[in-house]
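Supplementary Methods, section 5.1.

A reviewer requested that the exact input to the structure prediction be made available. We therefore reproduce it here, unchanged from the version used in the analyses.
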Amino acid sequence: MLLFGAVQIVMSQIPNFHDMEWLSVIAAIMSFTYSFIGFGLGFVKVIENGEIKGSISGVPTANTADKLWLAFQGLGDIAFAYPYTIILLEIQDTLKSSPPENKIMKKASMISILITTFFYLCCGCFGYAAFGNLTPRNLLTGFGFYEPYWLIDFANACIVLHLVGGYQLYSQPVFGFMERWLTRKYPTSGFVNNFYTFKLPSLHPLKINLLRITFRTAYVVSTTAIAMIFPYFNQVLGVLGALNFWPMAIYFPVELYFVQKKIGAWTKKWIVLRIFSFICLLVTIIGLIGSIEGLISAKFG
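The structure derived from this sequence is encoded token-by-token as follows.
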């Protein structure tokens, strides 16, 4: 975790989201690679076993309450897996204006969600079919004692590289928002606005901003410290997913749609979207409760 944090401190100095095309491409390639490997190994393992393990009821638990907690945690994980609202506008801002950006993003969102769902279902279903109730939270660790070892190591290396790029993709909008806000709030501050250029041999001139270095470094250090205190990947993802899902992916888009399309109160479309938003709010609350319980149990259980 310390090594990952050190790498992110360096990577976080990328000036802005527009300069991250190469990193985004690498992260996407890594994601496809380890997903294909996980899917393929699960499929092969099922054929090798000659049977489908597990059951329709899922992992058995000592009591109904534990079963509910696991289901709630699963909802939190799913909620984290899909929303990308924090980077959607940043991505759209990098597109050319012809054809219109919103039409491109609508098409890209539909394709990406279909592809993502395909891989989620394939890895999840074949992983459970391969290992049954002993399925690990990280599917690739279940193949750790099987050949080919090099393929497992390669897939895990792809995960690390994907996380390096993914961290930056989600952090850069936060960096940009805070730096723009501080620039407007303190327009005369040299610490916030001044850039210092350093010329390095055989390299492009390096521009240094004190705010960028201190804020971004502090951000990475704080997230690394939190990760070391709570090294429980799935539970933390569930908490973050539940916190982001309803407000960012459901409530604000629905409210904006009402304003943009001038949807009147108590019309058919207004009622349907309100019910949809309320159901998603319940899912968020349930996922948040389950994920917090899982985090506490993992930490102090």
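Residues 233-300 form one domain. These observations are discussed further in the main text.
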